[in-house]
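User: Please predict the structure of the protein below. I'd like the answer in structure-token form so I can feed it into my own downstream comparison script.

Assistant: Understood. Taking the following sequence of 116 residues as input:
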Amino acid sequence: MAALLPYIEFEVHAAEAISLDRFAGWTVVALGTRIWLTEEKGGRDVWLLPGDRHRIAGAGRVVVEPWPTAGTDADLPAKIRLAPPAGTFGRRWCLPRFRLNRVASAAARASGRGVR
């Protein structure tokens, strides 16, 4: 028997970005299209291809947005998975205050459009 860790999956549409707070130790996984993310307080820009993952280092804010390549996947939403820290399996844990804050994407900010 295999026991799987619980995880959260969601979609982010083109010209949208999601802000995540206090997810230190969680892993972001790109599913389907590539995504861009950056962490608050000295985090670097990270681009994930489908199947790539990034462990969130700090407890601050993380901004995640689709970064589609030109062509057929430009209008597809980015599917993103958040997986809890592996060491939390087998003991009680609860989700951080999970609230997806939609913020304007880099492309929308550059063109002067915001997220509604």
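That's the full token string. The chain has a mean pLDDT of 78.
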